[in-house]
Amino acid sequence: MNIIVCRDYQAVSDQAAEKVITLLQKNPYAKLGLATGSSPIGLYDRLIKAYQSKQITFKDVMTFNLDEYVGIPRTHAQSYYSFMNEHLFKHVDIDPSHIHIPDNDVNRIDEIAKEYNRLLKKNPLDLQVLGIGSNGHIGFNEPGTPLGNETFVVHLDERTRKDNSRFFGSLEEVPKYAITMGIKNIMRAKELVLIASGKEKADVVYQMIHGEVTADLPASILQLHPNCTIILDEPAASKIQEK
Ligand code: F6R
Known about the structure:
By secondary structure, the chain is of the alpha/beta class. Helix content is 34%, strand content 17%. It contains eight helices and ten strands. The chain has helices at 9-26, 41-52, 80-87, 109-122, 158-164, 183-187, 202-210, 234-242; strands spanning 2-6, 31-34, 62-65, 67-70, 99-100, 127-130, 152-155, 177-180, 192-196, 228-233. The strands form two sheets. It has a seven-stranded parallel sheet. Strands 4-8-7 form a three-stranded antiparallel sheet, with helices on one face. Fructose -6-phosphate binds next to loops.
């Protein structure tokens, strides 16, 4: 693991953006794995600026998102489909047919998981962006998920639902299920970039880096990836710095 500690969230976002910008300048046909949530918002802002200043184009880039809620329509303001559109896609020149976010039609969700998995196998990811849940999840691979899983439908942890209730009106409105890339899909990406900020992530970041590799803390598997960069602000790095 390559660990970068930055002064603040702005600097974290700059570092992460530099990685993506360098990749897109080298390979305009790159296949990018993307995450949602608070962590990558600053990164996406910077990518939009880099596009506007003509440093990069998304014309030939293909994107693959980690996950999507099941139980709310894609048109819902809190769906990851809406999130990606709002925070990145509608601001850049990406070809809509190059955007991949797992569909969430509950009537054919198992088939959708299989299709997404086939798609990921056909399109090895050059770089996967990740955040980390306060319970150690990556994507929606909750504690206890087998580390060999490929795309699957997950029953969300209560802790995840509580954490994410900040985006919804109430806890009851947070979906109970989601579809997510499995750990195995994530580990196949050539490069991983995980972003974490804030002191509420300090304990889980410490465990991810210094704890044993265990399904109880899925992000710990990243210790075994050959090209993984963890980008932290000082509060998120506070426990590892104490050590
Ligand atoms: C989102 C995702 C999740 C988040 C994690 C952290 O697509 O896969 O693993 O990265 O829950 O979320 P934030 O960044 O909101 O703290």
